[in-house]
Amino acid sequence: MNFTTNEQLILASASPRRKELLQMLNIPFTIVTSDVVETSVTVDTAREYVTEVALLKARDVAKRCQGKCIIGADTIVVFNNQILHKPVSEEEAIEHLTKLAGNRHEVMTAVALILADGTEHTFVEVTSVLFKEISPQLIKAYVQTGDPFDKAGGYGIQTSGAVLVDRIEGDYNNVVGLPIATLVQKMLTLQLLKLPF
Ligand SMILES: Cc1cn([C@H]2C[C@H](O)[C@@H](COP(=O)(O)OP(=O)(O)OP(=O)(O)O)O2)c(=O)[nH]c1=O
């Protein structure tokens, strides 16, 4: 696809996965990372939390890059109304994955767009993920790969964490960190992206 864009795009993310996903659109963008501390956010619902964090990341970068379009995102795993953040220890990773085993959870990614004129737009994409029944030995073996630690919920569907997943309903790329299909729709609506005809 040959999209064009009339604003300079900045991806406010240090995630290599988000960079790869945005590169699929074949449009120029640069990366400026934010220094937001996610735990400082207090709100009532997971949807509000993830939206607020995505906005904070985008606003933090917008302060330094005025007159450009900023894309910020945040991904969380929600199980039984509880947010499972990136695990900070092997014990926590095992705890997360033991909860998720054999059950369904939701992966929510919020995307915040701040346009060159300062207006803010957000949306949340939700993907439902069903995990297989997993033995404690398989959980331990996966945690020992080190893969869980930079990932919400403690797994990566795009890496060896794929063996934990039975099925998903919704956008796969949303689980990996950036729902590009809905993002493109939103950017077309906002006339940030244009089609060649
Ligand atoms: C569930 C799941 C999450 N993840 C990742 C996506 C996100 O990068 C990460 C959640 O952390 P985030 O805080 O959303 O993002 P990040 O810290 O990696 O990057 P930045 O804040 O700079 O944009 O978990 C996967 O890669 N695969 C998965 O299957």
Order of helices and strands: EEHEHEEHEEHEHHE
- What is the general shape? globular
CATH class: Alpha Beta
Q: Report the total helices.
A: 6
Low-pLDDT ranges: none
Number of discrete domains: 1
CATH third-tier fold name:
Maf protein
Structural class: alpha+beta
- What compounds sit in this structure? thymidine-5'-triphosphate
Biggest sheet layout? 7 strands, mixed
The amount of beta strand, in percent, is 25-35%
Question: What do the pLDDT scores average to?
Answer: 96
How helical, in percent, are the residues?
25-40%
What is the terminal-to-terminal distance?
11 Å
CATH architecture: Alpha-Beta Complex
Radius of gyration: 17 Å
EC number: 3.6.1.9
Cofactor: a divalent metal cation
Pfam family, one: Maf
Function: Nucleoside triphosphate pyrophosphatase that hydrolyzes dTTP and UTP. May have a dual role in cell division arrest and in preventing the incorporation of modified nucleotides into cellular nucleic acids.
Describe this protein's structure.
By secondary structure, this protein is α+β, with helices and mostly antiparallel strands. The chain has a single domain, classed as Maf protein (Alpha-Beta Complex), CATH 3.90.950. It has helices spanning 16-23, 46-64, 90-100, 136-143, 172-176, 180-189, and strands at residues 4-5, 9-11, 29-31, 69-79, 82-84, 104-114, 120-131, 165-169, 193-194. Strand 2 (9-11), helix 1 (16-23) and strand 3 form a beta-alpha-beta unit. Helix 3 (90-100) packs across helix 4 (136-143). 37% of the residues are buried. The protein binds thymidine-5'-triphosphate. Thymidine-5'-triphosphate binds at residues 13-15, 17-18, 33, 57, 73-75, 77, 107, 150-153, 155-158, 161, 175-177. The site of thymidine-5'-triphosphate (TTP) has 24 residues, from helix 1, strand 4 and helix 5.
